[in-house]
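Problem 12. The chain below contains 343 residues. Write out its predicted structure in token notation.
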Amino acid sequence: MGKILLVGAVVWLAAACSDKRSPPEGDTGQAATTLVTVYSARKEHLIKPMFDRYTANTGVEIRYITDKEGPLLARLEAEGETTPADMLITVDAGNLWQATERGVLRQVDSPALAANIPQHLRAADNTWFGLSVRARTIVYSTERVDPQQLSTYEDLTAEPWRGRLCLRTSKKVYNQSLVATMINTLGEEATEAVVAGWVANLATDPYSSDTKVMEAMAAGQCDVSIVNTYYFGRLKKENPQLPLALFWPNQDGRGVHINVSGAGITKHAKQPAAAVALLEWLSSAEAQGKFAELNQEYPANPAVAPSAEVASWGEFKADDVNVEAAGRLQAAAVKLMDRAQYR
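Solution.
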């Protein structure tokens, strides 16, 4: 990890020296351009269009560094007060919760954010706010499954699905968050019984990604699974004839499990006011539709409609448990999945 941080620091310093968008040195007689620095676990093609638009609108320059969420959190901790980062953007409420727990985010008092982002999609102490919503729902083979056979996540433990279920590995935070929110609602004992039932019905060992799960389904290796909707959208865009479809489970109960990508202002931000203004804009109607559309997600701002493609998947009742539970119960979820032999 030390080597990673050192290399990252060298890259940062080189970028800072060469970046044409950096504020001018010395007294040029012109006001220095405001520069906001963002650490992002979201890939460049998902954030750059939004940053470019914000800069065009406001003149505020945005420098960003992209990496996986683990290294970014470690970097923020190691840098401490010297960090150049003003904002952290990452995926999954579990990761956002970890950022709060590790003390790298600050509380934000913003009426605009409170109005734009529902309470269950942000931290209770306002250290982070959801910016886009992803549903983790059931996907099935249209060639081998009648959707009337489907009902709930729990029902995937039933005998008719024996040897027909595929899952992504439990090591990925998305499944950990799903199980964590189930623990919150169903209790640990009932949730463990569900997870053990899934394991008993597996057709193959778990896959490393949602994409590989769906490719296995299309190849006939299994018939039903649980995936994030945007992975389904990507595959459908590549192959519109893909014999898979989405099903919204638990519509008579708690609803479909949802999660977020989101952001917070760093504890030691050098431009906190400018960073808050950027975050407020990202939550606004002007930005929300495009921000979500870039990754085929749902806007976190309920006043903004999803893209036509995402809307075509149909409406559903979402679980309104605060997504913060995904982080608070993450450790319990990991232990539970281990006990249930879900690898």
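Discussion. The first helix runs from residue 2 to 18. Students who got a different answer should revisit the alignment rule from Section 12.3.
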